[in-house]
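A quick aside before the break. I want you to see a complete sequence-to-structure record at least once, exactly as it would be stored in a machine-readable document. Don't worry about memorizing anything.
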Amino acid sequence: MPTKRALLVIDVQHLFCQGEYEAWHIAQVVGRINGLSGKARSANAPVIFVQHESKGGLLRHGSDAWQLASGLVVEPGDVRMRKTTPDSFLRTELAHLLEEREVESLVVCGLQTEFCVDTTTRRALALGYPVMLAADGHTTLDGTHLSAEQIIEHHNITLSSIVSFGPRAQPMMSSDISFVA
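That is the input. The structure line, written in tokens, reads:
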């Protein structure tokens, strides 16, 4: 029986897609995410959009900054889920949702590489989900010591090097990811 995959799109929200907090190469990354979500929908794989929120400040639920990016293609059958920590599983319905849909592996993409993408990928591995990390489908902002490009490259290497959980993270170019096993 083929492995059922789901696409997890993390925090592609207005705050990180324009202006002061615009992530590196965000337009290209959003285009790749749209390509992945199109492939997932064609294979009847779940597409899950996760949105980070805070009690106040810029990412307050419902604020303009909290909204999904305007260039992101979201269809009525897609799932939208709210979270309040870098871990998309913590205090959310994600694990239940994946179990209910009999998902066995994840394709992970989105924002921000060193925070929510990293934490969610590690948690997915710890919970037993192999992860295809869209190597060109996640991004961040320049940091104090590393550029966004360096952070992305570092995490593609680091996350794929983790063996202790059992399941592995495999970085793949978005164009090479398939939702049909």
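Two observations worth writing down. The first strand starts at residue 5 and ends at 10. Residues 17 and 30 are 9 Å apart (CA to CA). We'll return to this after the break.
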